[in-house]
Design brief:
568 residues; alpha+beta; 4-stranded antiparallel beta sheet
Length: 568
């Protein structure tokens, strides 16, 4: 009893010296700040215009759409707190929650209506406008012709084909002056009140709710954007509604974001600061990671991937993406399908994935990546579709090239492979360049370009053959196939087919999954028969990430979402 009393007296004495138990030193709190290498300078950060993952991985942090995808890819309420869907699955009524822009004003249904119609406007020329073709009247408005201040539908023939006329040696569309399109009346998106948005679709679209989380369908602040064309070029006018807000943009260096104090769900956001670096060289980024300057990076050097995954410094994330090459089908000799097929068959994908990329990639013998559901979710679209050609089929490739007039490569014109500047693309380019030389007797050069220049050249057709990558925008095979429709902003090949367009329109016009999948398999068959693109492999994605980072999420589509991320 005396010993116990003595211990109590000692404890009381200690407590009195330090001023109470609350003053006992505690562990230092971990700064909730993360640094991430984006991999390059974004071409822009206006969600209605951008098409690349680097840009969208910025917009994902600073915007909220009607919905936001969870870690299982399921759309969850975001700015829309609830919605109702009509029995025919064509009319959606969204009810918005109390949410605010970073300038303190309320996010309203009028902002969504304005943003969607802006993205569809032919004046903006958004490459991703077709993501809104599901909305009634969206395609008609986007493809309309502006005369003065009015818009008119394209004139079409009895079969629905657009009519053109020759002006200065070029075919230009003919406007149907009798069919004026009034954006305020003829498009199926309407703000009924500040908190109620009505959307009427062209036809049932099973993945429409997922699309409402996609950057092209994110809102913009009408009061700001309608009066300032340069709003997305200045951090002072870059008004957003997401978990974080942009505070600094040092071009070709870094971007800084802080937690958005006006965000509706701010209590769940733990990070107080995000720094995005723009280092294109993966080896340099790895050095920064090893020296403590980076917590995570979009990719790792090919030569280090397996070692970094084994050590736990990188994770192999699933990635619904296809690495491919595209041919400029408007230029000879790539206007000849036999040439395109010969080049496609004359590479060894197994060798590329085992000896060049070495990241567990799967050789691509079709275009739609593995992992997409077929008519039933238990079946994979790629497995059902099967393979469209043999890998490393040199004999057939040589025969096709000879038929095209270039036996053993004789007389084949000089051309270049255009690409970005990453080590992966450099290594891939060198490997394919060597294979075409050895297998077909064809010589070509490599033309690496800074990413912005590279995309401009592709978009404007200033290339012969180029590297590309397509990652899924949503969990449906359509996301890989509708990019090759005539007029699609993402179809840089110059290839067009009315029959192909009809198949895509057929699958978009019905909610019957069996009919949809049959049309999409037929479309992929047609795409691979014409070969405007040369699939190489289906991707995996090794992401460099520190063990101090928790709840880091990268979707199979390649989007990163740092809303729930925290540091330990």
């Amino acid at each position: 009893m005396k010993k116990v009393l003595s211990l109590v007296l000692v404890l009381l004495f200690v407590v009195s010296i330090f001023g109470g138990l609350s003053r006992v030193p505690s562990a230092k709190a971990v700064a909730q700040e993360i640094s991430y290498n984006l991999g390059g300078e974004p071409t822009g950060i206006d969600p209605a215009i951008t098409v690349g993952l680097p840009e969208m991985n910025i917009e994902e942090q600073v915007f909220d759409g009607l919905t936001r995808l969870d870690t299982k890819g399921v759309p969850q309420p975001a700015i829309a707190k609830s919605w109702t869907i009509s029995k025919d699955h064509k009319t959606y009524i969204f009810t918005l929650r109390d949410a605010y822009w970073t300038n303190g004003t309320a996010v309203t249904a009028y902002d969504f209506e304005y943003a969607w119609k802006r993205a569809l406007s032919p004046d903006l020329a958004s490459e991703y406008a077709y993501q809104l073709y599901y909305v009634y009247g969206g395609q008609a408005f986007n493809t309309s012709i502006k005369v003065g201040t009015k818009y008119y539908a394209q004139a079409v023939d009895a079969k629905g084909n657009p009519l053109t006329k020759s002006v200065g040696g070029k075919d230009v569309p003919v406007a149907d002056m009798k069919k004026e399109i009034d954006p305020s009346k003829n498009i199926g998106v309407k703000a009924l009140t500040a908190k109620t948005l009505k959307v009427y679709l062209q036809s049932p679209t099973p993945y429409f709710l997922s699309l409402t989380a996609f950057p092209t369908l994110m809102p913009v602040c009408k009061a700001v954007v309608s009066t300032n064309d340069k709003w997305a070029s200045d951090v002072k006018t870059y008004v957003t509604d997401g978990p974080f807000k942009l505070t600094q943009w040092s071009h070709n260096d870094k971007m800084t974001f802080v937690k958005n104090p006006t965000y509706w769900d701010r209590d769940k956001v733990k990070l107080t600061k995000i720094t995005y670096y723009m280092v294109e060289d993966a080896a340099t980024a790895l050095s920064m990671y090893q020296s403590g300057q980076l917590d995570s990076a979009v990719s790792v050097p090919l030569s280090e991937a397996s070692k970094l995954v084994a050590s736990g410094d990188a994770t192999a994330e699933p990635f619904l993406a296809t690495r491919y090459m595209l041919f400029n089908t408007t230029k000879k000799p790539f206007s000849d399908v036999r040439v395109r097929k010969a080049l496609t068959l004359a590479i060894n994908r197994q060798q590329i994935t085992k000896s060049v990329t070495r990241g567990g990639e799967i050789p691509a013998l079709g275009f739609v990546a593995s992992g997409m559901p077929d008519a039933t979710s238990s079946k994979d679209f790629r497995t059902v579709g099967g393979s469209y050609y043999k890998d490393n089929d040199i004999a057939t490739a040589k025969a096709l090239l000879a038929q095209a007039g270039y036996p053993n490569g004789k007389g084949f014109p000089a051309f270049a492979i255009v690409s970005g500047t990453s080590q992966e693309l450099k290594s891939l380019g060198e490997a394919i360049q060597a294979m075409w030389k050895v297998n077909l007797g064809i010589t070509c050069t490599l033309r690496p370009e800074e990413s912005g220049v590279y995309m401009d050249d592709r978009n404007n057709g200033f290339y012969d053959v180029g590297f590309a990558q397509w990652s899924a925008d949503y969990m449906d095979a359509n996301t890989f196939l509708d990019i090759f429709q005539t007029g699609s902003g993402n179809n840089d090949t110059g290839w067009t087919s009315k029959a192909y367009d009809a198949l895509i329109m057929k699958e978009k016009s019905t909610g019957d999954q069996k009919v949809r999948m049959k049309a999409m398999h037929d479309a992929e068959t047609m795409l691979m028969a014409n070969m405007p693109v040369m699939p190489i492999f289906f991707r995996t994605n090794d992401v460099l990430i520190s063990k101090h980072v928790k709840n880091f999420y990268q979707s199979p589509m390649g989007f990163i979402d740092l809303k729930l991320t925290y540091m330990v």
